[in-house]
Amino acid sequence: MKALCYVGPNELAVKERSIPVIGPGEVLIKVNYAGICGTDMLAYHGGMTKRTKPSVILGHEFSGIVYEAGPFSSFQKGDRVTVEPITSCGECDSCQRGYYNLCTIAFNLIGIDSDGAFAEYIKVPESKVYRLGATISMQDGALIEPLAVCVHAVEKGNIAPGQTVLVVGGGPIGIITALTAQQRGAKVFISEISPYRIQVAHQWGFEVLNPTEENFLEQINEKTHGRGVDVSIEATGTNNGMVTCIEAARTKGIVVITGLPKKNADFDVYRIIAKELQLVGTRVYMKEDYDQAIELLSSGGLDLSSLISKVVPLEEAIQQGFEAIDNGEDVIKILISLSDEDEKA
């Protein structure tokens, strides 16, 4: 099978790899679509060399069709599915308390720590496979993983109807987080500097504030009657994003950190003390977040299809995907097509 592999920092290659052989409790999936995300970009640029080793197949946001399952599996060939791509030790303190997303011994993100979905086939634990309802397209199925990230972030922020929320960053995670918070009844503002992303956010009906403008905090205060926002969510992984979240939050507010930082942050800790802010980290998701993400798409509560900017074949994924993102192409989400069937429904 063909697979897109990490070769080393700033180097990817499409290679021939053997189709995985499943063992007990595993399912073989024929991948339809897989999304390129910020974590893939970080790994590509050598930002995760302690975890992502040369030759590993990238990709963890995907949908596909069950191709093979064991004799006692609850799945059968042809089932339309997506996957929660993390595994854990099950034995450490975090896992024993039910927080397997915080595993301290053997946390494994498929597509970063082990072979992922930028390939024609992938084998995964059956316990991590979720059926897609008839109302979810295969392309939308590849967006369930990032949606689950955003559901988890919104949960960590305890966002409730009537609250004000600032999402810093209008990329895929930022937009989907904003939509998820809005779906819960919050009034959401987005902070963004890219003209294209500002345009996209406006198309979704969001009020967008540019943090480079001198009166940014004045605008926040004006729109929140001088209080600041109840919850701010950092989705850029930048120092400026952290500072914006801290300054925009009201006293006793919550700052949720979702963006992966590329370097250590540098901000005024006293501002956190003076406002008695809660800084909350959020790492991927758990089963309940996946269940909720699937329900949101199945019920029509959210429609994310317009976030898909383009779909590219595997052979063009490096130039038309990774390099396009690096070059600042106007995109939100790029999917890689891995099936000749190119099923959309």
From TrEMBL:
Q: Which SUPFAM superfamilies match?
A: GroES-like, NAD(P)-binding Rossmann-fold domains
State a single Gene Ontology molecular function.
oxidoreductase activity
Q: Which InterPro entries match?
A: ADH-like_C, ADH-like_N, ADH_Zn_CS, ER, GroES-like_sf, NAD(P)-bd_dom_sf, Zn_alcohol_dh
Q: Which Pfam families match?
A: ADH_N (PF08240), ADH_zinc_N (PF00107)
What cofactor(s) does the depicted protein rely on? Zn(2+)
Annotated Enoyl reductase (ER) domain ranges read 8-336
Coiled-coil intervals, chain numbering: none
Q: Which keywords does UniProt give here? A: Metal-binding, Oxidoreductase, Zinc
Asked whether the UniProt record includes Iron among its keywords, one would answer no
- Report the PANTHER family cross-referenced here: L-THREONINE 3-DEHYDROGENASE
Q: Which family does it belong to?
A: Belongs to the zinc-containing alcohol dehydrogenase family.
Give the protein name, as stated in the record: Enoyl reductase (ER) domain-containing protein
What is the native source organism of this protein? Sporosarcina globispora
